[in-house]
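are you around this afternoon, could really use another pair of eyes. what follows is a protein written twice so to speak, once as letters and once as structure tokens for the fold. i want to understand how the tokens follow from the sequence so walk me through it. anything you notice is useful, everything is just below.
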Amino acid sequence: MPISMYDASVAVFQARLKALGGVLAAGEQNATERKIDPSVFLNARLAPDMFTLTRQVQIATDHAKGAPSRLAGREVPKFEDSEASFADLQARIAKTLDHLATFSAADLQGSEERTINLKVGGRDMAMPGLQYLFNYATPNFYFHVTTAYDILRHNGVPLGKVLFIRGH
């Protein structure tokens, strides 16, 4: 049975965002236990030229809400990027999951060939939906989810692979 664009996008984003929520919950709990101001983790980055934990989560959710929207020919919802706490980040994930729940497999049927137009780094890009999903949206999503995990792990939060995969 061939995999559908829905299964390759919405279902994957939903599972990984739920797991990211678990990772963030572990980070918040660890900050509390160690009496660390949560903003230390939220503003942490792996290298000076990389984004903070907060921004990593914002970008991950942007890809998760953007990919199926574009594939279905819908407008991508705009989020304000104003999150300043773990609770705000969890709310953003919940809002993204709510958006993802509005899609059905039928909404993405045939999107493999739909031309996806993007502006990336000031450049206009166009590619077929399958190429966009597998070579742009999904790799970017995983990069930012993994970097969020890595920032917390680097700051001493005892995370493991199971939490990254399952979220609990």
In short: DSSP finds eight helices and two strands in the chain. The radius of gyration is 16 Å.
